[in-house]
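REQUEST ID: PR-0412
SUBMITTED BY: lab tech R.K.
PRIORITY: routine
TASK: structure prediction, single protein chain
INPUT:
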Amino acid sequence: MAAKLFIVSAPSGAGKTTLIKEFLKRFDNLVYSISHTTRSPRQGEVHGKDYFFTNKTQFMKMVESGQMLEWAQVHGNCYGTSRFFVQEQLAAGQSVLLDIDVQGGRQIMDYDLDSVSIFIMPPSLEVLEQRLRGRGTDTEEVIRRRLENAKGEIAQKSFYAYVVVNDVLDEAVAEFINIVEQETAN
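STATUS: complete
OUTPUT:
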């Protein structure tokens, strides 16, 4: 099995995190890369499991010292991927799954890494809005900003090798598994 770097991006609320969690329950031979972020934990999120939560000063020190493979500021918070972690896993022959935004995905696609990019689409902007509102975690202003950002992110889906529409979760998970199996068989 060939070690690959899987880049998975989606607009906020497209169901990317849910899809990835379901995928990882069924496909355990991939390493999930935990991102660093400056945002506050949401209810139920655990440091070191969901994200490495840090403050902006520490985060920017990691960026300046070259510790981040990619990083971006999204919705007022910084997110980034550890360069060392990814390179170490790939060198050991282990495939890695990155759950990152479009900005970060595009940065990594510019590197000479054996990566496979997958964009997760919501069925429609209306469904995306319903999902964002259904979370009950964001203000009206944040929801509007996320929807506006989603339009720009969706416009970049053509840069990704694969697009998976997350309408019916089990179907999206099956499509995701098919892509990973196909890509790691090469």
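NOTES: The chain has a mean pLDDT of 89.
REVIEWED BY: pending
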